[in-house]
Amino acid sequence: MIVHLATSRGSRSIRKHLWYCPALNKRVVSVTYEQLLDVEVWHRGVYLFTDSERMTSAQKVYASQLWEKLSEKQGAFALLNHPTRHLARFRLLRKLFDDGINDFNVHRIEELDETVRYPVFLRYEDQHIGALTPLLKTRAEAEDWIAQLAADGEQMDRIIATEFIDTIDHEGLYRKFGAFRIGGKIVPRHMFVGTHWEVKQATNTKAAFRRREEYGYLCENPHADRVLEIFAMADVQYGRIDYALKDGRIQVWEINDNPQCNSSLVRYYKGRFGRNLFSLAGMNRAFELLESGIEPGPALEAQVASGVTREALCAR
Q1: Which of 96, 114, 265, 274 could potentially form a cystine with 101 if both were Cys, beta carbons 3.0 to 4.6 Å apart?
Q2: Within 13 Å of residue 168, how many CA atoms lie on the same side as its CB?
Q3: What is the CA radius of gyration of the chain?
Q4: Contacting residues for 283 by C-beta, under 8 A, at least 6 apart
């Protein structure tokens, strides 16, 4: 059994991802943090604590105490992603820059001083919708956009400035690599190629059909060791990392602990269907490896003396 824990808003992500992998999909149970007080027993299996960026303080308290209770039963549960220990986007990217892994830095919008390297773009630190702005070449341009976003009612305390690093190749193309960590395994998920600096998916050009190149990435898993090290730095055992290469070096964009599959690509670009299934098979094997370490036995009673009320768990 694989139990996917998420907020009500994020609870569909793994279902969407596993739409094309029935063998794994049948073993997944989705539980929201809002439902935790309704669970009577916890069956043995693999537990994915996800969606930390959307969790409320009360949900983090209850989920952390649940983690501690389940961890007392050695061999009964494989627990991935502690609810409060991982590095979220801003802290992770700042650490990667400080440690010389990333060549670009991130900044709070109130910290746009002389150390900032332009251009930058603005985005939410806890969402996965991409950039809010085009590339901003000067501090004055950035401040103008900050004022405009504030006037539009955006939540300014959650917006950060990210320095732009150009990963374009000699053909004028950008690549975004995506890979999952599932326990101790790195599973390559996709390699999207596009003509815009922000690659959200493969674009409908000849770049979208570089099948051999993407198959090579999926089969060879060339960055697995380095990617696993970065996941370990973030203290994330389940999630997807998005990154590019600059002069052969990994540049990390983010780690998402509740990633979705861009299943629309299967509809629009049928040439990716085989590569989709190939990657999902790798994910299935990684989950099976985790499940194989679970010892048989009775379920665990679900009582957690947290003091968290139902109203607090469901509040937004």
Answers
A1: 96
A2: 10
A3: 20
A4: 21, 24, 180, 182, 187
Judged against a pLDDT cut of 70, whether residue 16 lies above it is answered with no
Enumerate residues 6+ apart whose C-beta is below 8 A from 179: 186, 187, 188, 189, 221, 223, 224, 227, 240, 241
The residue ranges of every structural domain in the chain are 2-86+293-314, 105-163
Q: Choose the CATH number for 105-163 among 3.30.1490, 3.30.1330, 1.10.3470, 2.60.40.
A: 3.30.1490
Cα dist. 18→145, 202, 239, 262, 281 in Å? 39, 20, 14, 11, 10
pLDDT at 265: 45
pTM of the model: 0.91
